[in-house]
Design brief:
Layout lengths: L1 E14 L2 E10 L2 E5 L10 E19 L2 E19 L26 H10 L2 H6 L4 H5 L1 H6 L8 E2 L7 H13 L2 E4 L4 E4 L1
Antiparallel strand pairs: 1-2, 1-4, 2-3, 4-5, 6-8, 7-8
């Protein structure tokens, strides 16, 4: 991993799966496209700081009648120093939603394993283990998993499925949480 000072410009794009965020990282050694799930919690703007890059690779996608080839960086760490608003000329209209590129991730328990474990556990054991109907029917508990119940300060895990990450972000907004880019946490408003 290398650490570089630079500016991360985050843009919000409307795609067929809804809004998504993409970034452009400008550093002293070059410019990189950033499509990490962690960006889905940021507002549009320019974020100055130190960025830990774990991987650089080339990637391509098609958009309308063009083929776009870009150099991407995978961000391991983000330490922000300053946040600025995004100017109109920094927006680019054509982007592919990164969710379309993601390989489907497997949930911790496959459906076959879940069915086997459910059928082998008597109802008394389920009640004793705290995995009764309440946890299974509460949509917030299912959405947030180990983060549930939510505290006043929440840090989302960007390694979960990108669609789930976006649903978590949207639900936090509905619950009155606000994202603080410096520190990358959601605080109860």
């Amino acid at each position: 991993m290398i650490s570089l000072s630079g500016t991360l410009t985050v843009r919000i794009i409307n795609g067929r799966n809804g809004e998504f965020r993409v970034g452009s990282l400008h550093t002293e050694i070059g410019d990189f496209a950033v499509k990490d799930p962690v960006l889905d919690q940021y507002d549009e703007g320019c974020y100055e700081g130190v960025f830990g890059i774990s991987r650089v690779f080339s990637s391509s996608y098609t958009a309308t009648s063009r083929i776009v080839i870009e150099t991407r960086a995978v961000l391991e760490t983000i330490a922000l120093a300053n946040v600025n608003t995004l100017s109109a000329e920094e927006s680019e209209p054509i982007e592919q939603d990164p969710i379309d590129e993601d390989e489907p991730r497997k949930e911790p328990h496959s459906t076959e394993t879940a069915q086997t474990s459910e059928s082998s556990l008597p109802e008394e054991q389920e009640a004793e283990s705290g995995q009764g109907d309440e946890a299974n029917t509460d949509p917030d508990a299912q959405l947030f998993g180990l983060l549930w119940p939510l505290q006043d300060s929440v840090k989302l895990d960007p390694t979960v499925d990108r669609g789930r990450f976006r649903r978590q972000r949207d639900r936090l907004k509905e619950l009155g949480y606000q994202f603080k880019p410096v520190g990358q946490v959601w605080l109860k408003g």
